[in-house]
Amino acid sequence: MLEVNTRTEPEDTPAGLSIAEAARRTGVSVHTLRYYERAGLVVTAIGRTAGGRRRYHRLDLKWITVCTKLRATGMPINKIRRYAELVSAGPGNEQERLALLEAHRTEVLAKLAEIQENLELIDHKIDVYRGSLEAGEADRLWAPRADAR
Questions:
Q1: pTM for this entry
Q2: How high is the mean pLDDT of the chain?
């Protein structure tokens, strides 16, 4: 699910990808890629050319995709950083990684339940409006008036 497009892998280019190409492939901005690096969210040092330009490889793109998915689901930067630290540290901390991801999953499920409840209210309101419009009674829908306070 978190796989990066495999039709043309960065390893096809031994020197790696430029930051602009990495941004295009991951769907994040160049600014975001730089921020992820500064914030300690990457698990490996991003390669550099002799001139100091960043070069990204498949593993980098896959990890950036993981970070963006975690961020998109509301995981705070400090927790993503902690997860990155654990992954970077290597074997031996899998239980802590699992606990971090399970806690986040629980939070995401709670947010989804809240969103589902809100969607049900919206669906109800849509049904009311459709029904009133079809019955020719839309003018009877409640609307607050300034003088009714």
A1: 0.78
A2: 89
